[in-house]
Amino acid sequence: MKNAICLLSGGLDSTTVLAIAKAEGFNVTALSFRYGQRHHFELEQARIVADKFGAAKHVIIDIDLRSTGGSALTSDIDVPKNRSLESMTDGVPVTYVPARNTIFLSYALAWAEVLGANDIFIGVNILDYSGYPDCRPEYIEAFEKMANLATKASTSDGQHLKIHTPLIQLTKAEIIRKGLSLGVDYSVTSSCYDPGPDGAPCGSCDSCLLRNKGFAEVGIEDPLTVSYRK
Which of 65, 90, 96, 150 is the most exposed place for a label (fewest CB within 10 A)? Predict the structure, then answer.
């Protein structure tokens, strides 16, 4: 089995990507980050997801992005609520964390080289998303090119790093259908930017609205919502 790194937030998208990587036969190591995000409850769910899908290892790395701030997820800035789906792609929202995917992918790149892994999986998406610039295909292509210029594994050992983005052209509904076909239990995922103390989703931030839209298009109720109603 080939080794792979999967960036795992504990959310709907990254959980689906982990399931895809496992289904494709990779020996997956899951990588999560405690970066000062207000929705840190997702890390508890990431542990559950990594265990359920038999990740070879799950590591949570601490980074203090609150020290630089600049985002509603890492600073005392209100998380936008009840925005229209159209307004979510009208400019970059305040929930964007500056250079977050670049930071995360850089850590994944370093660990991949240590493990002898040539594959990194990330759950970026350009359709049902909030306008983040580091979710675009051209960004992923540029980072992959840089990665293959930056490591001993690629420049000396003849290896080639591939960044897998299996969700990048899928709607949220298509992502959910794919995950369900692979046995994903979405009741153990957490997507909310501003959850309650018990992890209950707010239901009105951009992430919750996009998630709710996806499940509505699939024609089923979000099992996470059901679990909190019990």
Answer: 90
d(CA 139, CA 116): 24
Residue 59 bridge partners (DSSP): 31
What is the number of domains present in the chain? 1
Distance between CA atoms of residues 229 and 69, nearest Å: 34
Read off the tokens for 65.
């992005």
CATH number of 8's domain:
3.40.50.620
Q: How far apart are CA 64 and CA 36, in angstroms?
A: 6
pTM of the model: 0.96
Can you give the residue range of the structural domain that contains 101? 3-229
Cβ atoms within 10 A of the Cβ of 5, count? 31
User: What is the token pair recorded at 123?
Assistant: 């759950």
Instruction: Give the pLDDT score at 130.
Output: 65
Let me know how many helices (H) and strands (E) the chain has, helices first: 8, 5
> Cα separation of 97 and 166, whole Å?
22
Instruction: Please tell me what DSSP assigns to residue 94.
Output: T
Closest CA to 1 of 25, 29, 30: 25
